Amino acid sequence: MAGAEIVPVGSDARLIAAALIGFAVIIVLITWLKVHPFLALTIGALGVGLGAGMDTGQALTSFTTGFGATMGGVGVLIALGAMYGKLLADSGGADRIVDTLVARSSPKMLPWTMGVVGAVIGLPMFFEIGLVLLIPVIILVARRSGLSLMRIAIPTLAGLSAMHGLVPPHPGPLIAIDALGANLGTTLAFGVIVAIPTIIVAGPVFSRFAAKWAPVPVPAMFVTAEDKGEDIAARPRPSFGAALTSILLPVVLMMGKALMAVIAPDADGPWKVAIDFVGTPTIALLITLIAAIFLLGVPARMNRTTLAETLESSLPPIAGILLIVGAGGAFKQVLIDTGIGEVITRAVLDSGISVLLLGWVVAVLVRIATGSATIATITAAGLMAPVAATLPSPEVALLVLAIGSGSVFLSHVNDAGFWLVKQYLGTNLPQTFKTWTVLECLISVVGLAGVLLLDLVV
To answer: Name one Pfam family in it (predicted).
Structure first.
């Protein structure tokens, strides 16, 4: 879908006006009229489609296509992640990890520790997968440590998101590396150099401000026996190694697929098919959930009835999240199909600014228009590919990072990740803008600054 040519359905002015009005309607419905985000996004998406020039059939098709694609991808991942997270909590595995992190890190160091955890988990994963895996740990660490939720959550999210845009073998940078013909090793080295200060600024440093701007309580999710005041000394729990293995298993599976795509892209055979299959996000999480039954449930002496109750009880709390994320994906698809992203891209390409800044701006505008970091990366890399062919290898690597930085800018109401973060952390709409949206902007701007500084050196 992303690679197909999009024909704008109306004039440039009409498309931009429809998008702006749509954004405003969604925000007003949610913040002023207190309409549920799912309903607000549905009204906004259909309104933008009709206002941009789509007929009723096109608008409905675009909406249902986006909703179905998001639920079939991110929705399944959220469901599997929720089941895994509940099992991690109920078995005592989350307790074991949290106790270890809290015991070995002072309150002052915990935000830094969580930033590293987010970066490691986020390296081969899409953001949504890393979030659903780590949300039980984020919530329990905040609850046990006594620190505010934002002091723990923001550094973790910064690590996850920075990896999404800057460091291969994450799928985002790999797309740009392939499209631009960049050197993987050079891009990886530059990406790590840029990512470290980016995570520090957007994570532990910014979390101090986020905690003041959004003093929300820790959500009443993943409540464990220890949180209920029960004596868990005699209660069997999985070991720290088993719990950590269960969390890292999908990381290893997905990283294996990503590395194989780089090391042996033209390889063929049963082993390549097997690696690709188990490294697919849905399959990796499914394997992780099954493995967790044995790694976490068996050591905790959970019988079949207990396991069934744990898995069943994990799904009702996320029903609202699934609908909101699906509607966000539908809104994104309407914006794509109307051609708004294409209109913005054409205008930027005629501006004559520097190559690195141009790549960043194109990715930023497509990201704002479509809500998708992946589509922003694909679009910007495709448009910049002819220019990249004339650049030296180090600058092509920096162009990959500039595009990656731009692809995460200004997450807002058309981004499924925006609603995922909002619902999991329990923030209202203004608080989500002041924390998550600002965090994404910081990652994007600091990442660009790092790229431009490296360009002066190399």
So the answer is: GntP_permease
By the 10 Å C-beta count (0-12 exposed, 13-18 middle, 19+ buried), 78 is classed as buried
Q: Which pLDDT does position 124 carry in this prediction?
A: 57
> 333: which residues sit within 8 A by CB, 6+ positions away?
62, 63, 65, 66, 67, 69
How far apart are the C-alpha atoms of 278 and 170, rounded to whole Å?
A: 16
Length of the chain: 458
Give domain limits for the chain: 66-322+336-457
Cβ within 8 Å of residue 104, ≥6 positions away? none
Q: What is the pLDDT of residues 282-322, one digit of tens each?
A: 898 899 999 999 999 999 999 999 999 999 988 887 788 78
Count CB atoms within 10 A of the CB of residue 37.
24
Distance CA 183, CA 160 (A): 23
Structure tokens at 63: 């909406």
Q: Specify the pTM.
A: 0.70
369, 19 contact by CB (below 8 A):
yes
pLDDT value of residue 206: 97
Per-residue pLDDT tens over the stretch 37-52: 889 889 998 999 999 9
Q: How many CB atoms lie within 10 A of CB 200?
A: 17
| Strand intervals (E) in 383-444 | none
Provide the pLDDT for residue 233: 56
CA 427, distance to chain mean position in Å, is 17
* Contact status, residue 230 vs residue 93, Cβ threshold 8 Å: no
- What's the token pair of residue 80? 């599997």
CB 434 within 8 A of CB 411: no
Sorted by sequence, the CB contacts under 8 Å of residue 401 that are 6+ apart come out as 166, 173, 187, 190, 191, 194, 447, 450, 451
Residues sharing a CB contact under 8 Å with residue 21, sequence separation 6 or more, in sequence order: 47, 48, 51
User: Which tens digit of pLDDT belongs to each residue from 398-428?
Assistant: 999 999 999 999 998 888 789 889 988 999 9
In single-letter form, the type of residue at position 440 comes to: E
Count Cα atoms within 13 angstroms, Cβ side, for 128: 29
**CA-based nearest residue to 89, from 321, 316, 299, 297:** 297
